[in-house]
UniProtKB/TrEMBL annotation:
Residues 12-199 form the Lon N-terminal domain. The lineage of its organism: Bacteria, Bacillati, Cyanobacteriota, Cyanophyceae, Nodosilineales. This is LON peptidase substrate-binding domain-containing protein. Keywords: Coiled coil. It comes from Leptothoe spongobia TAU-MAC 1115. Pfam families: LON_substr_bdg. InterPro entries: Lon_prtase_N, Lon_prtase_N_sf, PUA-like_sf. Residues 171-205 form a coiled coil.
């Protein structure tokens, strides 16, 4: 994948996490207890409060090359020098090289951005938004529980694409692929496919539930 934007190259402390993908604009709470990461947090809290989050593949153990910068927005010191922090995802980055690996990893990274859109993505964003609403409605109907549609869903296509990707659960590899995409339309199109499949699955289950009596054996 070609780099679309490399406005700056800098050193960035890195925090690999298993099966966790952070997206721009999303919060990530962390409990820091491992010694090397306590050192890292104490260091960055005295500087710009920024570090990089990278996903560790659960099967291969490989650390992804593309991640998201996290900024500490709140922290609380606990006994034994443990720290609870709340971070906010900032811009994405690609690791070019490792500067060092002890006591914690520090990488030389470049920032990456999406390509400029060649067409108006509002219709596609509206389609994805409606698919999400359909999924929430069907989930509510299937579970017989009121599930309110979040008020914080972004309207802008880029921010919406990140928001949707961050809500996917149990599919870290899929999320990593969405994070690495540098085309907003392609990311939204992939999310439309995922949501359409989910909607169809939920619709089929809901229809079956409507047909079968509640006391029917499963």
């Amino acid at each position: 994948m070609d780099s679309v934007s490399s406005v700056a190259v800098r050193e960035l402390p890195l925090f690999p996490l298993p099966e966790l993908v952070l997206f721009p604009g999303r919060h990530l709470p962390l409990h820091i207890f491992e010694f090397r990461y306590r050192i890292m947090m104490n260091t960055i809290l005295q500087s710009d409060r920024r570090f990089g989050v990278l996903m560790i593949d659960p099967d291969s153990g490989q650390i992804s090359k593309v991640g998201c910068c996290a900024e500490v927005v709140h922290f609380q010191r606990l006994p034994d020098d443990r720290i609870k922090i709340l971070t906010m995802g900032q811009q994405r980055f690609r690791v070019l090289d490792y500067v060092r690996e002890k006591p914690y990893r520090v990488g030389l990274v470049e920032w990456i951005e999406d390509e400029a859109a060649e067409k108006d993505l509002s219709p596609l964003a509206s389609q994805v938004d409606q698919l999400l609403r359909d999924v929430v409605h069907l989930s509510s109907k299937l579970t017989s529980q009121e599930i309110e549609f979040p008020e914080s869903v972004p309207e802008l296509p880029l921010e919406l694409s990140y928001w949707i990707a961050s809500t996917l659960h149990g599919v870290a590899r899929e999320q990593q692929q969405l994070l690495e995409m540098q085309n907003t339309a392609q990311r939204l199109e992939r999310e439309a496919d995922i949501l359409t499949s989910t909607r169809n699955h939920l619709a089929a289950r809901t229809a079956l539930k409507d047909i079968l009596p509640e006391d029917s054996p499963s």
